[in-house]
Design a protein that fits this description.
34% of the residues lie in helices and 24% in strands. By secondary structure, it is an alpha+beta fold. The chain folds into 2 domains: 64 residues, no CATH class; 108 residues, no CATH class. The strands form 2 sheets. A 3-stranded antiparallel beta sheet has the order 1-2-3. A two-stranded antiparallel ribbon has the order 4-5. A hairpin with a 5-residue loop joins strand 4 and strand 5. It is elongated. The chain starts with a strand and ends in a 10-residue tail after the last helix.
Amino acid sequence: MGRRLEGNRRVNHVIRRSHTLRVRVEADVEERFRQVGPGRPGPDTEYRRVETRTYRVHFDEDGAAVAADALCDGLFPLVTNDESLSVAEALAKYKYQPFVEKRHEQLKSVFGVAPVWLKSPRRVASLLWLYFVVELVQALVEREVRRQMRARGVRRLHLYPEGRASEAPTTGLVFGALEGHRRHRLFDGKGQQLRTFHDEVPEPVQQVLELLGVDGAAYGLT
């Protein structure tokens, strides 16, 4: 008669710890010995061992971690390495973070930086540095336009399509209003410039140029 040997043993005990839970993964191994090759078993018959693993996951609450968390209930900690900041100033800096992230979000949306088809890490870093400079220029343009609007009592600028108004113009609106402005120059047969023609500059665009302190001569304004 053929024979089959079986046995069970626990061979693994893995512990993974989260913040308030201890996770134990246990592996049970069932061993079976089966005959190698066909035929009736005999004194020289060889057997091979076959292992079947089953896993059990156990979750245990970490009472000490739960108790430590309970001591922090109702607290909102802020950590900073700037010792000159007061508590109110540190909180104000923290609340300003979404505005910074909103500016950087334009790297993926407006500018579409990713994917970057460059192999050298230095070139990737250089490209991103240029985009950070662009972000800085954007912020400065928006700040100057809005600051001048408040100083001069201008509530809104009609920069959107169909002349719709904007109370807080973005750099995209400002540059979009100036985009496509054309200049034509008329020369005689000897190459002497006779006249210069400019596209008409709408009133809102003239306001933008004035708010930014840009000389309007380049746009045909005197």
